[in-house]
Write a structure and sequence with these properties.
It is a single chain. The chain has 279 residues and is of the alpha/beta class. The protein folds into two domains: 165 residues, 3-Layer(aba) Sandwich (Rossmann fold), CATH 3.40.50; 87 residues, Orthogonal Bundle (Conserved Hypothetical Protein Ylqf, Chain: A, domain 2), CATH 1.10.1580.10. 44% of the residues lie in helices and 13% in strands. Strands 1, 2, 3, 4, 5, 6, 7 and 8 form an eight-stranded mixed beta sheet that branches. β1, α2 and β2 form a beta-alpha-beta unit. The protein binds guanosine-5'-diphosphate and magnesium ion.
């Protein structure tokens, strides 16, 4: 934890803007309180990635919640080109103020240097790759991506640190631990696949996720115990041991795999709190 934070602090000191990548399904719990101090007044844009996996109505609630705060935020789908364009646009907007000083003095502003940072599995590498490829694949007379030792040049005015900063996940409650396991920011071994799968199934059942119901051809009826439902899914998938009985552990692995691939529908585990607390 201390070493990770030291590395993050070093990286932050080199950039003008920090893009903090969180998971849109757990907007606060995928942050880390230690970051606030490490940022030390550095401009930050909070990027809620995998917005395509979060419930639309909940994204709206979160937008309203954040609108009452000073944070600059963006809900992103890293695989959507338009969404990514917005990221660069917002990054430039954040830096306008700084650039104004240069422009007033008649000086060409230096390129905006930024970095991605966040807990594991939020999509940092994906965003870096997508930003890079988009430019490299661009048509016209623009040179392709230039990779210096540590800066990826995204344009004349934009540079990105080539490796993201990695924050340790913050776990305050057991429920948050399960959320973080579900989105795979924490290894399954910590809590156990069966417990994580059971939690995910319980949630999907509660919201009656149509993708979940269709994927495993479930009856859209009354809520049953997660364990019983997992057995049903095991049976539908014909996930059996040699002797013929349902392979519960294997079924759990399959459910988690499907969930993390986005095949079981959108899930907004965390709802905005009533208070405007600091994440
Ligand atoms: N559905 C969806 N999946 C994403 C998105 N961004 C990243 N992923 C997937 O999330 C997983 C983790 O991404 P990665 O970039 O390795 O995360 P990192 O650990 O933060 O670098 C990969 O399987 C990606 O394909 C997104 O916006 N939507
Ligand atoms: Mg990565």
């Amino acid at each position: 934890m201390a070493k990770a934070l030291k590395d993050v602090r070093q990286k932050i000191s080199k950039v003008d803007l920090v893009l903090e990548v969180r998971d849109a399904r757990i907007p606060l719990a995928s942050g880390n309180i230690s970051l606030e101090k490490a940022l030390n007044q550095k401009p930050r844009l909070i990027v809620f990635n995998k917005a395509n996996l979060a419930e639309k109505a909940n994204i709206k609630l979160w937008r309203n919640w954040f609108a009452e705060r000073d944070d600059r935020i963006l809900f992103l789908d890293a695989f959507d080109a338009r969404s990514l364009k917005m990221l660069s646009k917002m990054a430039r907007a954040v830096m306008q103020q700084k650039w104004q000083k240069f422009i007033k003095k008649g000086i060409q502003p230096p390129p905006l240097r930024m970095m991605l940072l966040g807990i594991p599995n939020t999509g940092k590498s994906t965003i870096i790759n997508r930003l890079t490829k988009r430019k490299a694949a661009g048509t016209g007379d623009r040179p392709g991506v230039t990779r210096s030792q540590e800066w990826i040049v995204l344009g004349r005015d934009l540079e990105l640190l080539d490796t993201p900063g990695i924050m340790p996940p913050r776990i305050d409650t057991e429920e948050q631990g399960l959320w973080l396991c579900a989105i795979h920011a924490i290894k399954d071994e910590i809590v156990g696949k069966e417990k994580v799968a059971s939690f995910v199934v319980k949630y999907l059942q509660q919201i009656a996720s149509p993708d979940f119901i269709n994927k495993y051809s479930l009856q859209d009826s009354e809520v049953i115990e997660s364990e019983e439902l997992i057995m049903q899914i095991g049976s539908k998938l014909n996930c059996r041991k040699k002797g013929g009985e349902i392979d519960y552990a294997k079924t759990c692995s399959q459910i988690l795999h499907d969930f993390r691939s986005g095949l079981l529908g959108a899930c907004s585990f965390e709802k905005p709190p009533k208070e405007k607390i600091i994440p």
